[in-house]
Amino acid sequence: MPTVLIAPDKFKGSLTAAQVAEAVGDGLRRARPDVHVESVPVADGGDGTVAAALAAGFEHVPLVASGPTGEPVRTGYARRDDLAVVEMADVAGLVRLPGNKPAPLTASSRGVGEVVAAAVAAGCRRIVLGVGGSASTDGGAGFLAGLGARLLDASGSPVADGGAALTSISTIDLGPARDLMEGVELVLASDVDNPLIGPKGAAAIYGPQKGAGPEEVRQLEAALTHFAEVVAATTGADHRDDAGAGAAGGTGFAALVLGAEFRPGVELVLELVGFDARVSKADLVVTGEGALDEQTLHGKAPAGVAAAAGAAGVPVVAVCGRNQLTVEALRQAGITDVYALTDIEPDVARCLAEPAPLLTRIGELIAADHLSGEAGPTHIEDGG
C-alpha cells in the first residue's frame, strides 16, 4: 500500500491548504483505492499558519482584538499546552481592512500585541508569531503598544496608531511590554528576511503592496527611520538591519527589540505539524501553492517542504494554479514534477472559480504517473 503525504499551502483567494489537500487526496484515492493518504496543511508564517496548527491538533482560542484600522475583529490563536501560535494576518492583515480599502499610513499592528498579551495572560510561555500578510507599515509600534508599551510625543501624550505617526514619537517606555514578556519565549516566523529600512526595507519593498504610492513610501521610510533611532537611543541596541526586521511592515523589528528569535516561517510550521515524523513513512510527497514563481524559491512553503522531504529521501511533486519556474529551478528546489491547473484547463477564470475538481483530476494523474511502479511522463515545462 503506497503512502502519500499531501503538504500544500493555500491557493490564495481560491482554496485553503486543507481544501487543496482534500481535492488532491480524492483524486489519488479514485485512481488508487489502496493508497494511504495523509494530509498536513502547511504555511510559511503568513495567512494559514493558525489553520495549519489547528489541523495538526492545536486548540483554537477565540478572542476579539483591534483590527488594522482600530475596529474590533473576531480572531484568535492556536494553543497546545503552553505554546501559542499567533497569526498577524488574521487580526491585522490585509484581509481585515474594512471594505478592502488600503490604509498604508494609518494601519496598525496593535491587535497583534493584544492577541499575544491575551495568550501570555492565559498561561502561554512560548509564542510563535507568524507575521505575513500584514496591512500595516508601523515598525511594530502598534504591536508594542498592544503589549503595554507607551509611545509618547514631545508633550507626553500617546501617539496615534499607524506608520505616519511614528515621526511624532519622542520617548518610548518599553517597561510594561518587557515585564509582560518576562520569561516568555517569542519566535518570529517569517518568509522574508528584509531589514527595516533602506532599498530592501519594509516601506520600499512592501509598502506598495499595502497601497502606498511613491510619496507615501518616502513618508513611511522617514517615519521608520525616526522610530528606529528613538528605539536605539532608548534601548542601546540597534536592530534596524537585523534579518527579519522589515517583516510585516516592521513588526519583525519590534519583536526583535523584545528579544525574539527569527526563524524561517515554513521551517517552524513544519516543526509544529510534525512533518519529519510523517514524511519518514511516505513514498511520495505532494506540495504546492497557487503560483510557483521566483518567490517560491525564497522561503515559501513548497520549497521548504521539498527540502525537508528531500532530506528524508522522499520524492516530491507539486500542484499549482500556474507554474512560472524553469525545469532547472524546480529540480534544484527538489521538485521532480509539477501539475498546474492551467495544464488541463486553459481558461484561467475557471481555474480560479472551480479549482477543486481540477485538483481532483490532477490527483488521478499523480497516481497514474507516480504510484504505478513505472516512471511516468514528466509535467515540468519551463514556466512563463
Automatic annotation (TrEMBL):
It comes from Mycolicibacterium agri (Mycobacterium agri). Belongs to the glycerate kinase type-1 family. GO terms for molecular function: glycerate kinase activity. Keywords: Kinase, Transferase. GO terms for biological process: organic acid phosphorylation. Signal peptide: none annotated. It holds the Pfam family Gly_kinase. This is Glycerate kinase.
